[in-house]
Amino acid sequence: MGKYIIKRLLGLIPLLIAVTFLIFLFVHFIPGDPARLMAGKDATVHEVQAIRAELGLNKPLVEQYLVYMNDLLHGDLGYSLRSDVTVTELFSERFIPSMILSLLSIGWAVVIGILMGVVSAVFRGKWPDYFGTVTAISGISVPNFWLGLVMIQLFAVVLGVLPAGGIESWTGYILPAISLGAGIMAMITRFTRSSLVQTLQNDFIRTARSRGMNEKTVVFGHALKNSLITVLTIAGLQFGYLLGGSIVVEAVFSFPGMGRLLIDSIQFRDYPVVQSLLLIFSLEFILVNFLVDILYGFLNPKIRYQ
């Protein structure tokens, strides 16, 4: 296992270089000129060219990329073209709230989703299974922004027990986390149910029952552990989307997260911020999938890494 982890870590190096190059090209191919936006509509051509030279945008793309990589390796993400503060400073204000929101969303979705999936599989064809199926289909079908608006109307406007937006207190995370996690919970419920139903029909489950094990030990001690690989894959992929994919929900709840920062930065052609945000989102995907691959070996004893 140790060799496998080291091999996977070394294999991430060329992948990270390719990711930085693609992100750099993508950002610089976005239509628009940040120098013109900074200079203003009434600026002369000479003023725009002066700003472009100051930002280094008049250099060849290859040279700009090498400068970007050199700064990145030294931990320098650059300055925001829009607000003239360091990108690191901008991230420090947005990253923690987005990470907390992502962890809360995936946390409750995984716990409730697995429990509902187990109940649906154990009581297959009975009312708990139908209830879980209806809940899962509803969670997948309902858009998260619409669910957010309904919950704002109910819990903030009518009942007045939760804030409609902002994160002045911990209660500000509750409604956005529920909105973001509802769809993930529904998917995990369905995948847990289908995977567990198949596992419960295997020979080793019948053997465990014939040896007199009680049903709780059979389900939670043997069947569920072998069914969690699919669930783990879904949870890992969905967590990767949460950090940067919650733009609409952040807008609904006026949440100061990374998604809104990305949209604002793209509109202003703020290259350093957009590049750094896309790099962080990519790193998150790579890291989560790496951890998921490692966890496979712990969940399924048949998997061996040499």
Automatic annotation (TrEMBL):
Bilayer-spanning residue ranges: 9-30, 99-123, 144-164, 170-188, 228-253, 273-299
PROSITE patterns referenced in this protein's UniProt entry, alphabetically: ABC_TM1
Membrane topology, from the record: Multi-pass membrane protein
UniProt cross-references to InterPro entries, sorted A to Z: BPD_transp_1_N, MetI-like, MetI-like_sf
Protein's cellular compartments: Cell membrane
Domain ABC transmembrane type-1: 95-292
GO BP annotations listed: transmembrane transport
Keywords assigned by UniProt, alphabetized: Cell membrane, Membrane, Transmembrane, Transmembrane helix, Transport
Main location: membrane
GO CC entries: plasma membrane
CDD domains tied to this protein: TM_PBP2 (cd06261)
Family listed: Belongs to the binding-protein-dependent transport system permease family.
Its biological purpose: Part of the ABC transporter complex GsiABCD involved in glutathione import. Probably responsible for the translocation of the substrate across the membrane.
Protein name listed in UniProt: Glutathione transport system permease protein GsiC
Species in which this protein is naturally found: Virgibacillus necropolis
